[in-house]
Amino acid sequence: MPEDPIRLPEGFAPISKSTLFEHWCEHPGCKKWGGYGYARLKTDVSRWFCYEHRQDGEGVL
Q: How far is CA 41 from CA 4, 38, 46, 52, in A?
């Protein structure tokens, strides 16, 4: 016998677990993917840099 589906309380919607973000390198003139994110605190907005410019991100810390 199959189980009943889980029902969310009224006013709640399911949350998608997969979210795609595009992080481009913030170094001036660079058009590469920013795979390295830096922020001083977890609550700060992250700044993103590519492999070649990740040293710029180290300066954020």
A: 42, 9, 9, 23
